[in-house]
Amino acid sequence: MRRIGCVRWEVLVLAVATLLTALGAACATAPLTQRSQLILVSRAEEAQLGTQAFDAVSKKGKRSRDPAQIAVVERIGNRIAAASGIQANWEFAVFEDDKTVNAFALPGGKVGVYTGIFRVAETEAGLAAVLAHEVGHVMARHGAERLSQGLLAQFGAAAIQIGMAGKDPGVTRGVLEAYGLGATVGVLLPWGRTQESEADRIGLVLMARAGYDPHAALSLWERMQKTEGRQRAPEFLSTHPGPGRRIESIRAWLPEALPYYRPTPEQVAEGGQFLPAAGTMRRAVAAPAPPSTPAIREGRWEREATAGLRFVFALDRPVALQGAEIRGPEGIIYQVFLEARLEANQREAITLPPEAMPGGVPPAGTYTLTIKGRFPDPAGQPFTAERAYAVR
Fold this sequence. Notes:
Elements: E1 3-4, E2 7-8, H1 9-23, E3 27-29, E4 36-38, H2 43-60, H3 67-84, E5 91-95, E6 103-106, E7 110-114, H4 118-121, H5 124-139, H6 142-154, H7 157-166, H8 169-178, H9 193-209, H10 215-228, H11 235-238, H12 243-257, H13 265-271, E8 296-303, E9 309-315, E10 319-328, E11 332-342, E12 347-352, E13 365-374, E14 382-391
Parallel strand pairs: 5-7
Antiparallel strand pairs: 1-2, 3-4, 6-7, 8-9, 9-12, 10-11, 10-13, 13-14
């Protein structure tokens, strides 16, 4: 039978006919951003291909057998998956590679985390930011979108369907490439910048819904930015947009996510827990050093009878406060000298008086509280912590 390259004539004819039909029903809309998408495969098809790709990665990679690491990834991942509302065969796997600072997601709910990400995520809330980003890719069907763009050009819509049915090795290789999984396990080809930003934005809302402080995503990328300055940048940086721009975008999206953050006291405590050290089954590892910036674990605002706004906060470790600044809508800037010693998780409050606000009435919008101080140790290193409040 005559062939063109490796594709039969009847496949090409069928591909053209299928393509014309598919393009008419290929429009989809991404959640939250409402961006229009071109998706030529069904959810069942993308789930099948995602499972095949995940099986291929699992065979090449080394799955972790550390029960502590597996448990924390599964617990956090399942909470975020539940917050997404997506019905899928979710699976959260840990791959043993302490040098790889990365994670990936495949259609159908398959998410992989490399142990190297633990040292940068640091806390459960930091890992939640990573997993929420990956679940955001699944929720927005980014794999199916890129699959549609990449495989359509290479095989044609009908060739995808025929190759799937026969488990064509060529199609399987194409699927892996379209999903960003190259020949070397753990090296991902970059998503488009639009898809990456979309996953960041969706991820903030997902982690907030699951009871994790979305500010942890900001802290995560600040640590990523510091890591970038080292001799060898981690894969998570080399395959994603620069952290500087990412931090700016996350700051802008925090007010959108904060209304969904209504954690229980137990969830607040869990989010601040440090992650299991990489390689705990193979060797004794010292406890990780605390983050360079204290985390504001609890934050809420209250209206006072005097028409002022009271901002309540608690830091995750002992500190010596030296000052604070509140920035709000309509050009509000209020600075206060604050000298106090706080223990870990001790509540403190700062009041924005009516005279600091236009017309003496606090306008609705986003207020940012910046706290400055020093650590109460012999070195006395300074710190700055920040928290955004959505005032309605």
